[in-house]
Structures are given as structure tokens and as C-alpha cells.
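Show me a record, fold above all:
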Amino acid sequence: MSGHSKWATTKRQKAVVDAKKGAIFTKLGKLIAIAARKGGDPTANFSLRIAIDKAKAINMPKDNIDRAVKRGTGESGGAQIEELIYEGLGPAKTQFIVKCLSDNKNRTAAEIRHLFSKHGGSLGTVMWNFAQHGIIMIASEEINNKKLTDENFELELIDAGAEDIQKEDQGMTIYTAPLDLQKTKQFLESKNIKTESAEVEYVTKEPINLSDEEKIKVEKFIEELKNSEDVSDYYTNANL
């Protein structure tokens, strides 16, 4: 299974979180609202609990979280949030899947189409080169603190649903089937192991390597995607 490319972007996001908290709170509010449609109780709604955990990790105020939950359950009214998926080719013919949360489908579609075009790409079908997996990330500090380096721990992870385990300098990435994500996450919680993230993501089947010049172009495109109010996440086959 190909390596996961989110460690670098996760680190960068943490570095800028304070400067862009308002925009990030807005995005997480939408994420919480979408998840809350399946029920407003995070103990019974795993997707909602994961979304709230992400919000708490950057100190999103409780009032903001509560408002987002009520918006999702329909208690507070407001325009309905939709999850939208766009596929396309970015700079250097890289493939991208872009996930958006929006209350205005036409506005979002026009903006995403413009961003692809601005960076020399276009919307198009690339889903064939991606598969959905549950992805759980544990930082190297947590691995060292909890001494999670022995074989027994990895065997326990496999019993708990892990399909693949990748180790990098930044930490450990655990791959599961989408339906096994909750089971594996709960196993880690039972061991009091802190995770950096836990969610279902699109992972490329065939990553591509880029030249330094191409990487710069792709990173500029990614930066604009992240700055879009409607973009909640992106997935790419570019090896950055």
C-alpha cells in the first residue's frame, strides 16, 4: 500500500492554526453539522465524535461546537450544508479529489473549477486511481512515550482491524477498511493512546514523483485549496 502523504500538511496546518482560527472554525463547524445529521449524540455517532475531537484539538469554543451540532440536527435552522466531491487534474497532470462542505453548490462548483483552471488543470475523472481507507495517525512522540514499538502491539492492531501499518520519522500511519475505522480507533482509546487524526480518506493506488519545479506548482495549488472556505479536505496522487 502506498505511503500516506498527510504528515507534512498536518504539521503545516498546526503551524498556521492560530493565524487562521476563524476560517478553520468555520470549516470544522460545517464538518460537525454534516456529521450531526446522523444524530446529535457523539457517544452514539462516531463521525460526530471524530469531528468534535478535531474541533477540540484546536480549542474551538464549546458554544461554536454546540451551534454546529444544532445546525446539523435542524434545531437552529439555517441553510443546509452539503458534502460535495470534485475530481480533476492539477498542475503537472497530478490527480486530485477535493471534498467540499457548502451551503451553495453553484458557488462552490464555480470556485473549484476556477482554481483548477487557474493552475493549468481541469475537472475530470480520477477516482479510478483512489481507494477509500480508514487512516489513523499516531505521532512519533506518542509512540515513544507509550513504548509502542514491540511486535505484540502491531499484532493487537491487526486483531483490532488494521490492514497495514506504515512507520515514518513523523509517526505511524494505520490503514483499515472504512468500516473498521471505529473499531480500531476504539482499541487505541482503550489503551489511552492519543491519535493525530482518524478518518476515512481517499488514498492513491499509484503515486507519482515530481520534479522540484513541479512540486512548487502543486504546493501553490494546494495552498489555494486550503484557503478556500468551502474546501474541507483534498487527496492527491502527488508524492510530496
Summary: The domain at 6-73 is CATH 1.10.10.200 (Arc Repressor Mutant, subunit A). Residues 21-36 form the longest helix (16 residues). Strands lie at 82-89, 95-102, 122-123, 130-139, 162-167, 171-176, 197-204, 208-209, 231-236, 238-239.
